[in-house]
Design brief:
The protein is of the alpha+beta class. Helix content is 23%, strand content 22%. The strands form 2 sheets. The protein has a 7-stranded mixed sheet with strand order 2-1-5-4-3-8-9. The radius of gyration is 16 Å and the shape is globular.
């Protein structure tokens, strides 16, 4: 029997929901560290120097159609759904801009070359940031998990105002509704 082909756009109905373990509570009100991350558009982005409001959605890793998932991926609470989360932010990009978001980024520990393929395939109108060397992970003590030798970020989203984290969405579930949740919060906090 052959294994079904992986389609990263489709979420299984029985995904386990992540629980709030309190791993991000300390981030609210924290100034982002003065360090640069490589973006898929070739720029270097320093989140601490962003002016105005920015949204950063943080995710474990994007998959590719037809490639095997990491070991036990669907059983890890909060792991599956990075592509649908990215597509949600893509589809709501103009809504976020309308609500005063000056910058939108995705963030993972994958390298920029891998991320660039996803940006192109998914037609994302924003850049993805790479923390492949875990500089930001270590500086902020971000929650991670490991699978198949990879250190991956737990899924969350940040509202950043002038380089400071003003709100954190964590845990994020279901991942394909992440952008809608952020938009609802932005509208309620006008």
């Amino acid at each position: 029997m052959t294994e079904p082909i992986h389609n990263p756009l489709v979420l299984p109905e029985d995904l386990p929901a992540p629980q709030d373990d309190g791993a991000t509570r300390y981030l609210i009100g924290m100034r982002l560290p003065d360090l640069t991350l490589v973006a898929t558009d070739g720029t270097a982005v320093n989140l601490s120097r962003l002016k105005g409001r920015a949204i950063v959605y943080v995710y474990p890793r994007t998959g590719r159609p037809g490639q095997a998932l990491p070991t036990g991926w669907d059983a890890i609470p909060g792991a599956r759904g990075c592509t649908p989360q990215s597509c949600g932010f893509r589809d709501h990009f103009t809504d976020l801009k309308r609500l005063g978001v000056n910058a939108l980024y995705g963030l993972s520990t994958q390298d920029s070359t891998y991320q660039r393929e996803a940006v192109e395939r998914l037609h994302l109108p924003f850049a993805i940031l790479s923390d492949a060397d875990l500089k930001l992970v270590r500086a902020l003590k971000l929650p991670t998990f490991s699978v198949d030798g990879m250190t991956l970020l737990k899924r969350m989203a940040w509202v950043i105002d002038d380089g400071m984290i003003s709100h954190v969405f964590y845990p994020v579930f279901p991942p394909d509704k992440s952008a809608e949740t952020v938009i609802a919060w932005l509208e309620a906090s006008k």
